[in-house]
Fold this protein.
Amino acid sequence: MRSKGFTLVEILVVVVIIAIMVSLAVLSIGVTGRDGQLDEESRRIEGLVGLLHERALLEGRDFGLRIEPGAYEFVVYEPRRDRWLALDQEREFRHRELPKGVTFQLELDSQVVVIKAIDRNLSSDEAPPGPQVAIAASGEGTPFRLTLQREGTASKASVNGDALGKISRVS
């Protein structure tokens, strides 16, 4: 004789399926309050600046980070031409645009710096502007705090660098 109703196994299967669906929904909307794009971009900048500090020591060359309102790029100083050149040949150091709605705030010596757009239509005779953050061949660098902010929210992530080349990230 079969009774009407569900078995315990059937109920447990339904509960497990619902729990999986809820956990996927929570992960996809980011209930934690953290901004994944800000974290990813700040980690990338921290890693690349740290890598350039090591590279500057190994190669004996000066590098820099040139920051625009919605983008950034890494540059190298070419003493024979007396100018800063973009590191476009290397994929990891290429010109990068920030995700939509994300902006920079740069502080040098605890002073907020106005970040201006770079004119990409300069003639070959005109030198592009130098970087705001320099990384010397000695391993020393410009002390800075670069904050990434999501417009319209309180989400922020910062990358800090000291004069001795120590890079850290705060989110």
Observations:
- The helical segments are 8-29, 36-59.
- The chain has two helices and ten strands.
- Residues 106 and 114 are 8 Å apart (CA to CA).
- The mean pLDDT is 86.
